[in-house]
Amino acid sequence: MRAALTFVLVVLAVIALALVGGWFALQRPDIPFATLQEKYGAAADRVLDMPSGERVRYRDQGDRNRPPLVLVHGYAASLDTWEPWVARLGERYRLISLDLPGHGLTETPADYAVSTERYVAVVNAVADAAGLQTFSLGGSSMGGRVAWEYALAHPDRLDALILVDAAGWPFEQRPGGAPLVFQLLQNPIIGRLLSNLDTTALTRQGLQASFVNQALVDDAMVNRYVELSRAPGHRPILRALQLDYGRFATPELLAGISKPTLILSGEQDNLIPVEHARRFAQAIPGSELITFPNVGHLPQEEIPDASSEIVANFLARVYRSEPSAEALAAAAAAARPAP
């Protein structure tokens, strides 16, 4: 009997050691910014040192003699999400993209407390650094939330607003349920434990949920998201962003936006339902709504030709550089699949 008990205890100890060893084997340390800069930086990168301690990476591309468009990425993303638009719009507009604190190659102080107000301040500082008096502002997902908050805080600086699958409304139910990675990160205990592990598989699943055309989610994209999330200081900020960090949109609040506004949304968005885009359109006076069939959460990457052309036509009307009325409708029709 004693021998059997001893055998069981030894087996349990071996299993426990294996689990502990496996746990430590899955731990992933921070990746130094210098290493990430060497891999993911570009000659177009610039750095803005803010008085509050942030070192913000941004890019100023396109034709500097054309109207400027500032672009703000979504949760866990980086300015790389806008490169398809930069490639297509650069001859017609000046494109300024940036990494928000906790994302990409932007560095933050160790005690950084995330808030929409601080993100709005970063956008304003980048616009100042670029020497912009007024500009158009586009935001994707969480960046869309930053963009409409900016429009409310600094209406005198905006020429136009572009919301791409924008966040801001409270969720009743996500279409198809939230990707597993977001469900886990929203738990304060599990999220803290998970963020220190190898999240490659979960990140891939979350990215695949963002696209209808999942072939776009290749190893390079997954590795970029995973590795940039491991920049020093990023993981605590990404966890904080899964909790409540700002106010929700309301019709009364958004009624204060008076600038020309274009609202874009994929109809198969599994992260932010297309109904939220319709609510933005109803709440923002005079806004225009375009939805894309068979497109997910990131139309700037999934259908860059069609989505950028709609943006170009919208901005042409804002800046009165081309005829206006039918161009946007024609571009929207071209984005729809043939019957």
What characteristics describe this protein?
single chain, 339 residues, 14% strand, globular
What order do the helices and strands come in, and which of them pair?
Layout: H1 2-26, H2 33-40, E1 45-49, E2 55-62, E3 68-72, H3 83-89, E4 94-98, H4 116-129, E5 135-140, H5 142-153, E6 158-164, H6 180-185, H7 188-194, H8 200-208, H9 219-229, H10 234-241, H11 251-254, E7 261-266, H12 274-283, E8 288-292, H13 299-302, H14 304-318, H15 325-335
Uncertain stretches of 5 or more adjacent residues: 7-24
Number of strands: 8
What is the overall number of helices? 15
Structural class: alpha/beta
In round numbers, the mean pLDDT is: 87
Task: State the shape.
Answer: globular
What's the main sheet like? 8 strands, mixed
What is the N-to-C order of secondary-structure elements (H for helix, E for strand)?
A: HHEEEHEHEHEHHHHHHEHEHHH
Strand order of the largest sheet: 1-2-4-3-5-6-7-8
- Spatial gap, N to C terminus: 75 Å
Percentage of β-strand residues: 5-15%
Radius of gyration: 22 Å
Fraction of residues in helix? 40-55%
What do you see in this structure?
- There is one protein chain.
- The chain is an alpha/beta fold.
- Helices cover 45% and strands 14% of the residues.
- It is built from 15 helices and 8 strands.
- Helix 5 (142-153) links the parallel strand 5 and strand 6.
- Helix 3 (83-89) packs across helix 14 and helix 14 (304-318) packs antiparallel against helix 15.
- It starts with a helix and ends with a helix.
Describe the structure concisely.
This protein is of the alpha/beta class and 339 residues long. The chain is built from 15 helices and 8 strands.
